[in-house]
Design a protein that fits this description.
Strand order of the largest sheet of chain A: 1-2-4-3-5-6
Number of helices of chain A: 8
Oligomer: homodimer
Number of strands of chain A: 16
Structural class of chain A: alpha/beta
CATH topology of the largest domain in chain A: Rossmann fold
Shape of chain A: globular
Largest sheet of chain A: 6 strands, mixed
CATH superfamily of the largest domain in chain A: Dihydroxyacetone kinase, domain 1
Number of domains of chain A: 2
Largest interface: A-B, 59 and 60 residues
Radius of gyration of chain A: 19 Å
Strand content of chain A: 25-35%
CATH architecture of the largest domain in chain A: 3-Layer(aba) Sandwich
CATH class of the largest domain in chain A: Alpha Beta
Chain lengths: 357, 357
């Protein structure tokens, strides 16, 4: 294993120390329990947005803490869920009295721990809602997941809900918005290579010099098919058509029901994209793929969308939700409306995403 | 070779097509000869900044075309100099009557072709100056270079000179500023892995599972030493101390002298950094290294700078001048003054760099 690290067990903590040193004007890091939060003063009456999950997907989530996006992020060890005490401590730190939205990627460990944190926080008088992101259409169940995995749409939800919170949306409105973004977002990824988790020291999976994994998860979970390398245009066609023709759009997610005071199953149904829909096209690098290649994917994607009558009115291109040094990419298509566009365009200032400020 | 590409010979053109499709509000691409330029109207009386070089270093340079940075970029094939006709056509396209500054990385092909383009443009009545960037302190001469190579400081020069041009600096002032940025900027890099040029199909060089190359060039040129993998703290110490104690700061670069109407050698002398200096610390990913590792480098770098009495007052962290999917990083330290800080902070809006707008 060749990596720019010291001891594997210090990887996450030291990386956060580097972030804290680099962006002292934007973020602070608390250790034991570990969470990243805004360096700027708390805004009373603003809904606070918290996300988190295993490390190794940087810049998500810690790189998105700041004005217009997250109030706090809870990083676990690499590809390992953070613990409820991290999530609870973060909630206490950033609660401005208007409640907390936890944005949770659908992995069993994350789901369980964020549910526990939700209950702990509520028992301490903090109002918390909890929205799952389950946008990965590649497989129905996966290695660490019941149902669809949460991937690229998480980044979009954090941007859009962060803007809404900044603009004074209340907790129910931000949660409803987050549910809508998840409902309208669909993703699928592909890997050319594995990544190596520092603590393990060997690749998570093996691919030969000619193989790729279609439908890869962001922790290297198996996808739909292992196949031979194809032209980028062919790969992009498979990903894009899989997303457009997705038939897994009917599913249930667990959410906290404030009225009933219990966890309930919410049914999500969002029919496939249709001609004339306005979309945000997000081409994400898995971390190790050159930007020039990511633009090759975007090139074909934009051609397909045009043929299909889908209007790309916004886009995002680059490494946002990565899998360490994995080579590959994912495509996320999010159906937009005027409100989502307005929130997307709002200013943001975080370590890894800044515009308008 | 596994890459997200179609035919290797179409790689650069198709990637630019993807960029043009993604950022139609910011850039346009001209083909035959190939250059990228701002989609926004020409600003009469503004000095135009043009850079260029081989492709494979994205986002540099095409990703930096837009308000507050470049007016045009001339991409060659991967790791291959662009041609004088590209540079001339770009100059004609973006000339607003106030002249052109070519920012040129010190590689023999780039230098020769930009010199030729300078003469061609001048013969057509366009005023052009030409500043070399030669900030890589790793080796004195290299595979494609006489003297020091041009690396990370190029990114900083494009940002700072772009801001100055936007603020109405005249051509001599922008050139003088660029010379100062180059004079005060020092860099050194390290590679954990090679990259593979699409047209070649095999790695540029071989490193064993335990080897690294200290002082690597951005085209995989040999550095100072091939050695065994070390802790990131040790690697960062070697890079940082090499930069701080640099003794190669006395050198000459060729520039066009407008008064004499000929190329002259300009002597550059900038003594080493001193206690109390304010600096910009730039930790650049070579493309394939996870962001979390880049922050580990920044962590140690900031500690060393503090020990040495150097004040990091600005920083830049991430993949800006890459070498395709190469794993590794480079450190650039730029001595700042009030004017450079003011220009650094100015708004910018390009495909890959945006803030304040």
């Amino acid at each position: 294993m060749k990596k720019l690290i010291n001891k594997p067990e210090d990887f996450v903590r030291e990386s956060l120390q580097g972030m804290a040193a680099a962006h002292a004007d934007l973020i602070k890091v608390n250790y034991d329990p570990t969470f990243v939060y805004r360096a700027t003063p708390l805004i009373p009456g603003k809904v606070a947005i918290i996300s988190g999950g295993g490390s190794g997907h940087e810049p998500m989530h810690a790189g998105f803490v700041g004005h217009g996006m997250l109030d706090a992020a809870c990083p676990g060890e690499v590809f390992t869920s953070p613990t409820p005490d991290q999530m609870l401590a973060a909630a206490k730190q950033v609660d401005g009295g208007a409640g907390i939205l936890y944005i949770v990627k659908n992995y069993s460990g994350d789901v369980m721990n964020f549910e526990m944190a939700t209950e702990l926080a509520r028992s301490e008088g903090i109002r918390v809602l909890n929205i799952l992101i389950d946008d990965d259409i590649a497989v129905k169940d996966s290695l660490y997941t019941q149902g669809r995995r949460g991937v690229g749409t998480t980044v979009l939800a954090e941007k859009i809900c962060g803007a809404a919170a900044e603009q004074g949306y209340d907790l129910s409105q931000v949660a409803e918005l987050c549910r809508r973004v998840n409902l309208h977002g669909r993703s699928m990824g592909i890997a050319l290579t594995s990544c190596t988790v520092p603590a393990k020291g060997t690749p998570t999976f093996e691919l030969s010099d000619r193989e790729i994994e279609l439908g890869i998860g962001i922790h290297g979970e198996p996808g739909r098919e292992r196949t031979y390398i194809k032209l980028v245009d062919e790969i992009t066609e498979i990903l894009t058509h899989s997303i457009i023709e997705d038939v897994s759009y009917r599913r249930t997610v667990r959410e906290w029901d404030e009225n009933q005071g219990e966890w309930i199953d919410v049914e999500l149904i969002d029919p496939p994209l249709q001609k004339g829909d306005r979309i945000l096209a997000f081409v994400n690098s898995m971390g190790g793929t050159p930007l020039a290649e990511v633009y090759l994917v975007y090139r074909k994607l934009s051609q397909i969308c045009e043929q299909q009558g889908l209007q790309i009115v916004r886009n995002l291109i680059g490494p946002y939700i990565t899998s360490l040094e994995m080579q590959g990419c994912s495509i996320t298509l999010l159906k937009l409306d005027d409100e989502l566009i307005r929130l997307w365009d709002a200013p943001v200032k975080t370590p890894s995403w800044r515009w308008g400020i």
